[in-house]
From TrEMBL, chains A, B:
Keywords: FAD, Flavoprotein, Oxidoreductase
One Pfam short name: Acyl-CoA_dh_M
Stretches assigned to the Acyl-CoA oxidase/dehydrogenase middle domain: 160-266
Protein name: 3-methylmercaptopropionyl-CoA dehydrogenase
Source species: Hoeflea olei
């Protein structure tokens, strides 16, 4: 059973990112280390004791649809209620609307724990938080006054309605339409698919944010507007009125996260109300909906990255516990009676160290992204711009690398369990099933890689990525300067990996500058992986030196050496794959015919 | 829907392995190319038209247990009946007992196709074929006379009963016991778990091969004997008599291959017969059961390797079909109206090429293993020994590399489908679920890697592995000598990969010679991967030159170049990981505490 690794999370937050120093310097106002620790401990307790125990029933029962009504698994409604009663939904929400205004760093740490408890639970609030952010930044004061506080507290949940059958990664193809009523509202018509928590029994109302086209809107993504469409109309006194013309027509039968209802939503079918059309209110400007939606989406991408970290952590804990208990064979050097715990077999230990090191690397990458988001808010001018661009740069890596390793680690977890891993009751297979969605939703990992290469590497003429790489170099230098032997071999290997990252980065930048788009696009995925692995080696090493006297320092050092010895050498191959360019696919049309 | 790639299979059989030349030289007697082609075409038709359409219902209905009776999904019993009526079960079976005595090469090709149709179907006959082989090699003439023909034709199925709750990878811990009755039979007592097709409704009788200990048998694996335990007793006239004291007490609820009943089998519980004890007959000598079982197991390992190839092929076909149909965005250079088929996006094409190249590499590795098994039977003396050792060497690579890539390819297949990939009805997720067992059963892939390094590399003082690597070098030289440009860049990259393979091999051999077992064990898994990837690059290239005038040559060359550019560079990192030795795990105990 999952136990929140509060200590390691606190260490990563405070010592691998600059959060600890910023706290000491008073950058986060009244927030002090004691409060941070107390919040983490309580979040950890809630995730371990309240969420995790409901994950299995969530999977086996799943969400159910009956005549438009979605029922979540036994205990889940109460779980959500205790969770919002604990104030967790409003952790980072605006203080003016009942939120606690805490840093994103606290949010990602908590998100990690909720999702380790259950990915199917964690994804719901992620969307509400996205809706809060979009409303806060783009909605009118009237809309804010009516909806924001209840979304911040979690009394209502929010959803994100982008996808249509013909419009997934490509929102140009979006067809849902919005017709102005004349009174400032719009009638929305269309079908949306894959809507996470589009309908459920957690809350009395659900606030849908919906992308649709106005009449005569320009084609493509410049003709998309964002609307707020409540399930039930809300009176000026906050009371719930009539049902809006939107309903859930179907739930997907999915590989995993069964408790999370994935809905087909029908807008404007005439099922409710006097005349067809779901009534919506415009958020932000007409035809600027995509920009508003991206406010939600960027943070959702980091949140999905946290799902990768989260599932990896749970899988690792589970596999380690099993490997300590299960005995088979006699490991080299084993001097006990009978069979060894399988954790003593080198091949099993290699799997577990791989799992643990990838998890810690992805965690540190995601937390660094949250740090950049926080610092962008706390700083101004060039400094704010630099932090903001850093967050933009890291976001696709946080999303894609973390979710890729989430799946890899979950799969290794199954393998460590041997035959038991394939049996559903063991729970290892469920983690693999659950993990498989994260590389897909909120922009597939291929889209993330393309975003990284084509939109993020060029930021500030390449300075943004250069500054991040410079920090990895500083990590390598610090490792070299350390005389304790704890990081033996790390500096050389990290430096070699960084050299590969720089070479691949230069290749991508040149390809873009010279208009060789296909060369950049072809190698984007191996490039992102190269970036993620190099960051992993750097950040895991950084964690050792950041608190070299800690009782955990030896354990962290073993992980850092393992990462350097086993992940850093992969970068040479990734560099080759990333820089082969379009030549890699020459003749592919014939090969794939 | 799966269409058997008969042409590519025939090409790989005849031109990548030496089967074509051996056929021409009359090494396989009357068997000629026309008959080979006809059998492949008919097997392909059966797999595509009969098996594949029943895979989905197999998954959704699954096998069901009610009071000891197992019912397979709708249509499956009839499927099995048509399959044995087609003579497929006896393809390689001994001609004296109703088999067709065809080469193993034909068997693996057919196995690939059955398993592409359905892994849950393919695994059943695999065990029957193993039972046939064990009986043929080790059983008394009486047992052969009574059981062999019906197992060869498939009128009865066979099972393999090794695993017990405390004895999985480590059979030393086996507890099932056998008591001599005094009349040449034994009473068997014990519980076996994870017994594939241990109970079902396909056949009127089921012949269990069961490992158990005689009284006073030595401890460990030298005290294990193999017994034949029929579900129903068989009269001398072949008629079925009373029920033996064995039954299925439970079915596992698994991640995948739901139609394949995974049984807990109870022997000697007194449920059937006058007194407790399932009656069994000894196969081979007392206390030599493991050797007999290994006869089954080695070929079963290759057969499971074929499952990896099979699921990879199906997943690749499915993903390519989807990527041609689904349109999103505009790929660079796309000049059509509207959105591009996603196959034109470089990142999607990269995934598909990766899938296709890994599949073809694993196929060629497995077929090479079958070739070695066939040639070992057709040759004598040193030549036979060399072929036999080659089969031993390749078996763990065929099993582990193919099943690892089977899972990777199935997972990429989900990714290509985007959101639809996570929806069960699409079928891509089912392939991932099904594929996940193959790296586990018949010896986990970690066990395969250890077998490769510790038992196979030392064969004939290292000559066995050196000879195989020499053939890869010849492939590299042939690629260099080719002036057509079809294999541009392949020779250099393949040679670099081979150099890494040689260096890693030398490291492993030295570690073993110097008694540094932990060094060898720690790097075994990356070593096996290094071997598999190098073999993939060599064998895919070999396939191009073997039939350079074929209409498919350009497509094959594109795949060979892709493999060389993207897989060969991985070997440097794998060499580093494989040769870091036990140092890699220094401090792991603390890190995994």
């Amino acid at each position: 059973m999952y136990r929140a690794p509060v200590e390691e999370i606190a260490h990563t937050l405070k010592s691998v990112t600059g959060f600890g120093k910023a706290l000491d310097a008073g950058r986060f106002g009244d927030l002090g280390e004691d409060l941070v620790d107390a919040i983490l401990a309580e979040a950890g307790r809630f995730a371990s004791d309240e969420i995790a125990p409901l994950n299995e029933i969530g999977d086996t029962e799943g969400a159910k649809l009956d005549d438009g009504v979605v029922t979540t698994p036994a205990g889940w409604k109460q779980l959500y209620r205790s969770w919002i009663d604990g104030g967790w939904n409003g952790l980072t929400g605006p203080e003016d609307f009942g939120g606690q205004g805490l840093p994103m760093l606290m949010s990602v740490a908590a998100l990690e724990m909720w999702n380790s408890g259950s990915l199917a639970f964690g994804i719901g609030p992620t969307l509400t938080m996205g809706a809060v952010e979009a409303l806060e930044k783009h909605a009118s004061d009237e809309l804010k006054a009516k909806y924001l506080e209840k979304l911040v507290t979690g009394e209502w949940m929010g959803t994100m309605n982008l996808t249509e059958p013909q419009a997934g990664s490509d929102l140009n193809a979006l067809k849902a339409r919005a017709e102005p009523v004349g009174d400032g509202t719009y009638r929305i018509f269309g079908q949306k698919i894959f809507i996470t928590y589009g309908e459920h029994d957690f809350t009395d109302n659900i606030i849908h944010l919906v992308l649709a086209r106005l009449p005569d809107a320009p084609a493509g993504t410049r003709g998309i507007s964002l609307f707020l469409v409540p399930k039930f109309f809300v009176g000026d006194d906050g009371s719930l009125g009539a049902r809006n013309d939107v309903f859930c027509s179907g739930l997907e039968h999915k590989l995993g996260i069964h408790a999370s209802p994935t809905c087909t939503m029908i807008y404007g079918d005439g099922k409710f109300g006097d005349e067809p059309g779901a009534i919506g209110w415009l958020i932000g400007e007409e035809n600027r909906g995509l920009a508003c939606m991206f406010t939600m989406m960027n943070n959702a991408r980091l949140a999905v990255g946290m799902q990768g970290v989260a599932v990896a952590e749970t899988a690792t804990q589970k596999a380690i516990a099993y490997a300590k208990e299960r005995t088979q064979g006699r490991a080299p050097g084993f001097s006990g009676e009978g069979m060894s715990p399988i954790i003593q077999h080198p091949d099993v230990a290699r799997m577990l160290m791989t799992m643990k090191a990838l998890t810690q690397g992805a965690r540190a990458i995601c937390y660094s992204c949250a740090e950049a988001l926080d610092m962008a808010r706390l700083t101004e001018g060039d400094e704010a711009k630099a932090w903001s661009e850093r967050a933009s740069l890291i976001t696709p890596i946080a999303k894609a690398f973390s979710t890729d390793i989430g799946m890899e680690v979950a799969s290794l977890g199954v393998q460590v369990h041997g035959g038991m891993g394939f049996i559903e009751e063991t729970g290892a297979a469920r983690l693999l099933r659950d993990s498989r969605i994260a590389p897909i939703y909120e922009g597939t990992n291929g889209i993330q890689a393309i975003d990284l290469v084509t939109r993020k590497l060029p930021l500030s003429g390449g300075d943004t990525v250069a500054r991040l790489i410079a920090e990895f170099k500083a990590d390598a230098e610090a490792a070299r300067a350390d005389n304790s032997g704890a990081l033996a071999g790390v500096a050389d290997r990290l430096e070699a990996a960084i050299a590969d990252l720089e070479a691949a980065t230069a290749y991508m930048q040149a390809a873009l500058a010279e208009g060789r788009q296909p060369d950049a696009l072809t190698g984007a995925t191996p490039y992102l992986r190269l970036f993620g692995l190099t960051a992993t080696v750097a950040l895991v090493a950084r964690g050792v030196l950041a608190d070299a006297q800690a009782p955990q320092a030896a354990a962290r050092a073993a992980l850092a050496r393992f990462a350097a010895a086993n992940f850093a050498p992969e970068t040479a191959g990734l560099l080759a794959a990333a820089t082969e360019g379009a030549a890699s696919l020459k003749g592919a049309e014939a090969a794939l015919a």
